[in-house]
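hey m, so remember when u said the tokens were messed up on ur end? i reran from scratch. heres the input so u can diff it against urs
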Amino acid sequence: MLDQASKTPIAYATISFGDGQGIFADDEGAFVFTKKLYPDVDTLYISALSYKNVTIPTAELPKTILLEEEISQLDEVVLIANNRKFKEETMEPYLDDDYYHCWLPTIESEIAVYFSNPNDKLKKLSTVHFPITLESRDWEQRKKKNADKKPFSTLFKVKFYKNNNGKPGEVLVYDNIVFRATEKDGDSYDLDVTDNNIIYPENGFFVSLQVLGYTDEAGKLLPNKKYKELKGRDGGIVKIPTNFRPLLPFTNEIETYNTFIKRVFISGNDWVQFKPGSMDSSLLKTGLTNYGIGITYKVYKDE
């Protein structure tokens, strides 16, 4: 998959099949689709940040897909002097290694967390702290901090959204932001976003996390099986979404419902607030309502 003008690769585009399935392109814009793998799919729906969406019948699928850049109105750019004084503040992430307190991430799900703006000071994001759960190799030692942890190497995609009347709205940053997490990162992954120049919006913002799949040792996205196919009681095949490690710990220590979920390939790709009555979830039944992402930001002093 290439940029139509520059012919450069478009990384991590979303390829939806329109029937609850989908895959992602890798860092070189490549993805694998064959009729043998997906015999019942006749159309691909392709989207990528800052590009126009494309619909392609599988019968006419070319070896190279070109996407046209979408020219949109740019937001106001805020320039901050390098010598301007600031203090750094942190909202700590909520950590938990209890398996039963965790969201099981699937490629079809994206989790967004809202951060309100505490004051009218000029602020710039420095780091996002994503809590992750480490699982012990030995279940009997799962509560021991020094227990040997199960290995994983997983690629995640991060997006920032404007606040649209309390729900994730337009994309705030068009940068393609990804990171690879392993068990060696500990209980949280600290993503440095200083160079992305994200100014804290007046009405707050959302940061989201989406698993792209497992990687090899070099961090290259592997072809990942998105669904497990199980035989149902009626003899038919039932597709169950594959869960990827690490698990994401949820908390009951946040009073408001700050977390939103969407199924990227199904349910109209709409955001749903994660709260009682919104969906059937074992986490909600036990009062765990938020994914406790933390952030660090610079608060600039008035000039």
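this time it looks ok to me. The two ends are 47 Å apart (CA to CA). if urs says something different then somethings off w ur setup not the seq
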